[in-house]
Amino acid sequence: MSKISKLFKGSSGGSGSSSSSKHHRSKGGPSPQEAIHRLRETEEMLTKKQDYLEKKIEQEIATARKHGTKNKRAALQALKRKKRLEQQLTQIDGTLSTIEFQREALENSHTNTEVLKNMGFAAKAMKKVHENMDVDKIDDLMQDITEQQDVAREISEAISGPFGEQFDEDELLAELEELEQEDLEENMKSMGGLPSVPSSKLPSSQPSHRTKSKKRAEDDDDMHMLTSWAT
């Protein structure tokens, strides 16, 4: 009796642990991925059910047409079955809409949860990076960089500036102009100077004989015209 009682106790204890594990799983709840997967499976099942009902409705319509007025009872029974199938189809449409809405809401919630989780992870990483940074030290560092840039600029200006004696550019241009004038005078002397202007008056050009004859002919024409007007 003692062995049998121990055996039942062990089996009851095992069943208790199994029920406790199931209770623990139900308390934790399914993961979002598992719930979404279940909803998709339900959608697929209801979609197949829709296809089946639509085919059955077509068959019942064909049966009602087949009997028609010849067998009204069979035709009416087919139409009644069609109505019931249509009601089921309408119910499935509503259920699919509800499941689709629930799945989309769950997917959005899961996406938002992952986004927030990653944003929190990034915030922690950024905080860790900034732990060893001091704003005052950064300001001092930037000021040192600015000062060194100014020093480098002054050194560059000093190196690139003119070195040695500096001369007045206007004075050098005046001296160059004098040298050019001297060269011009030397060239003129070597060529014997400028040609002299003649002192005697140049003879004026006389009109040619042909021009005089033409002038005289024009005057004769004018006198002839005046005489003809007077008469």
Automatic annotation (TrEMBL):
<dbReference type="GO" id="GO:0032511">
    <property type="term" value="P:late endosome to vacuole transport via multivesicular body sorting pathway"/>
</dbReference>
<dbReference type="GO" id="GO:0000815">
    <property type="term" value="C:ESCRT III complex"/>
</dbReference>
<feature type="region of interest" description="Disordered">
    <location>
        <begin position="1"/>
        <end position="36"/>
    </location>
</feature>
<feature type="compositionally biased region" description="Low complexity">
    <location>
        <begin position="1"/>
        <end position="10"/>
    </location>
</feature>
<dbReference type="GO" id="GO:0005771">
    <property type="term" value="C:multivesicular body"/>
</dbReference>
<dbReference type="GO" id="GO:0005829">
    <property type="term" value="C:cytosol"/>
</dbReference>
<protein>
    <submittedName>
        <fullName>Charged multivesicular body protein 4C</fullName>
    </submittedName>
</protein>
<feature type="region of interest" description="Disordered">
    <location>
        <begin position="181"/>
        <end position="231"/>
    </location>
</feature>
<dbReference type="GO" id="GO:0060271">
    <property type="term" value="P:cilium assembly"/>
</dbReference>
<keyword id="KW-0963">Cytoplasm</keyword>
<keyword id="KW-0967">Endosome</keyword>
<dbReference type="GO" id="GO:0031902">
    <property type="term" value="C:late endosome membrane"/>
</dbReference>
<dbReference type="Pfam" id="PF03357">
    <property type="entry name" value="Snf7"/>
</dbReference>
<keyword id="KW-0175">Coiled coil</keyword>
<dbReference type="GO" id="GO:0006900">
    <property type="term" value="P:vesicle budding from membrane"/>
</dbReference>
<keyword id="KW-0813">Transport</keyword>
<dbReference type="InterPro" id="IPR005024">
    <property type="entry name" value="Snf7_fam"/>
</dbReference>
<comment type="similarity">
    <text>Belongs to the SNF7 family.</text>
</comment>
<feature type="compositionally biased region" description="Low complexity">
    <location>
        <begin position="195"/>
        <end position="208"/>
    </location>
</feature>
<dbReference type="GO" id="GO:0009898">
    <property type="term" value="C:cytoplasmic side of plasma membrane"/>
</dbReference>
<keyword id="KW-0653">Protein transport</keyword>
<keyword id="KW-0472">Membrane</keyword>
<dbReference type="GO" id="GO:0015031">
    <property type="term" value="P:protein transport"/>
</dbReference>
